[in-house]
Amino acid sequence: MIGKVVGGILILAAGGYLGVSLSAAYRRREKGIAGLIYALRVMKTEIGFCESYVADIFCELSERLTGEFADLFARAEAMARDGVKTADCMSRAIEASAGTLCLHPEEIRVMMEFSSQLGMSDRKRQLENIDKTVELLEEIRGSAHEETVRNAKMRQTFCLLGAALVVVLLV
Q1: What is the mean pLDDT of the chain?
Q2: Per-residue pLDDT tens for 6-34?
Q3: What is the signed CA dihedral for 125, 127, 129, 132, rounded to 10 degrees?
Q4: Alpha-helical segments (H) within the chain
Q5: Triad 97, 128, 123: Cα angle to 5°
Q6: What ranges do the domains of the chain cover?
Q7: DSSP string for 9-55
Q8: Which among 92, 93, 99, 166 counts the fewest CB atoms within 10 Å?
Q9: How confident is the model over 142-152, as pLDDT tens digits?
Q10: CA 72, CA 91: separation in Å to the nearest integer?
Q11: CA-angle at 144, arms to 135 and 41, nearest 5°
């Protein structure tokens, strides 16, 4: 009898943990988009006021950010220091990091469009490009937040209810 109770508690705990871990992916995406917006705002400041070289901006971002985004900008910096064109640095870094980033294809597409214009025009147009990209990412972040609110609790609930169903069927 005690074995059944302990087993039921373990199954419920596993179902709850599964629900929390599945819903964490939604929150991670939302935080990732916010990290990109932050990086673009830093880039805008560096380009607009400091007139820094792009390799130096990538270095600054790789030091300020954490996780996969720090790696993304570190890759871009390494390529920029090797003499690769600015637009290609960012595009290649995004392609190389796409599997590890917590972003959906929509965000990756927006960043690829942004990177294709990076370093290809004067400072004013680059700042406009950054503003446009930040605006698009803000819209995406809003829809990602709605998706998180809608789906995160639902996944937690379904996993817990599934675990409860397994417990009922086993008892």
Answers
A1: 85
A2: 888 888 888 888 888 888 887 888 888 88
A3: -130
A4: 2-45, 54-64, 67-81, 86-97, 105-117, 123-170
A5: 90
A6: 2-170
A7: HHHHHHHHHHHHHHHHHHHHHHHHHHHHHHHHHHHHHIIIII---HH
A8: 99
A9: 998 888 888 88
A10: 10
A11: 35
